Amino acid sequence: MPTICAKLLYGGKRWGLPLPRVRRHLREFDPDVVHVVNPVLPGAAGLAAARSQGRRVVASYHTDIARYARHYRLGPAVPLIRSLLRGLHGRAHLNLATSWAAIEDLAGHGITGVRLWPRGVDLHRFHPAPVPRLTGRPSPLYVGRLAAERGLHRLAPLATAAGGFRLVLIGDGPARAQLERTLPPGTVFTGMLHGDALAEAYRTADLFVFSSTTDTLGLVLPEALASGLPVLAAESPAARATLSGTTAARFFPVDRSADLAVHARALIRGDHRTEARRHAAESGWDAATAGLLALYREVLTGATALSA
């Protein structure tokens, strides 16, 4: 699908174009079910095309666009965003969300009857292994987009040389230049990593840090746990949903990030790798995929009514 780069919007992120050719592609492929991921922009075009052709539609919610709008000083647009989400999700035969926190978000937008779709993690790729560290000092690791809404300023206590850590940031985004200026020189910026390179980077760390309170799920959390890493996460519903039930995680209040170093040392000193892996093993892709296929079958048999 063609994309455009909006330099003034979200740091130049590329956006898919909702072109009419979507209808032609759907007709040629002739799917039984159309699954629209985040039904805005290209997703909205796919949803409209599917409904116009009489196809069954599943929509899933992954991004709290309204909360992101507030971070980027677009608060006045929030009512419009909520209305747009209600209208788009209301055209699906079934709506899914990947965490209970996300289901609550949708309820706040007036979208009800949402089903849980637990996401999985590749347990074969992400696993503990004794490989050399990226640095000589204990390494807290962050993986994700380098953007304002991810709360990366909260990680500053883990980047100071005096604390005995060397913070490693994997990813890229509009906040990278500012972070490179404000975080201590010893901070490691790797840029984007994928596949086996990313999996190896997890295994070289001593601790995973999750500073975001805006994520609806946080796919990096099960990846870190599967790699045997204990997790230090900012207090948020999404983090709680993923990390509840394991002793390999601690939470910190977003207004008390100065205590991060204390929590980090405690997690690193503890032997949490086996427990982290055990918790992640409950979230393999086999179970997640089987659950999604069962939901598709419900839609095909008409067991689910149109949301609106």
Q: What is the CATH homologous superfamily assignment of the largest domain? A: Glycogen Phosphorylase B
Q: Report the order of strands and helices.
A: EEHEHEHHEHEEEHEHEHEHEHHH
The helix fraction, in percent, is 25-40%
Give the low-confidence spans. none
Structural class: alpha/beta
What is the CA-atom radius of gyration, in angstroms?
21 Å
Averaged pLDDT: 86
Strand numbers in spatial order across the main sheet: 9-8-7-10-11-12
Sheet of most strands: 6 strands, parallel
**Total helical elements:** 12
Number of domains: 2
Distance between the termini: 29 Å
β-strand amount: 5-15%
- Give the second-level CATH assignment, the architecture of the largest domain: 3-Layer(aba) Sandwich
Offer a concise description of the structure.
The chain is of the alpha/beta class and 308 residues long.
Account of the protein in words:
Helix 8 (220-226) packs across helix 11. The chain is of the alpha/beta class and 308 residues long. It has helices at residues 21-29, 42-52, 65-71, 78-89, 100-108, 176-182, 195-204, 220-226, 237-243, 260-269, 273-280, 285-300, and strands spanning 3-5, 14-16, 33-37, 56-61, 94-97, 115-116, 140-143, 168-170, 188-191, 207-210, 231-234, 249-252. The longest helix is centred in the C-terminal third of the chain and has 16 residues, at 285-300. It contains 12 helices and 12 strands. It folds into 2 domains: 3-120 and 286-300, Rossmann fold (3-Layer(aba) Sandwich), CATH 3.40.50; 140-282, Glycogen Phosphorylase B (Rossmann fold, 3-Layer(aba) Sandwich).
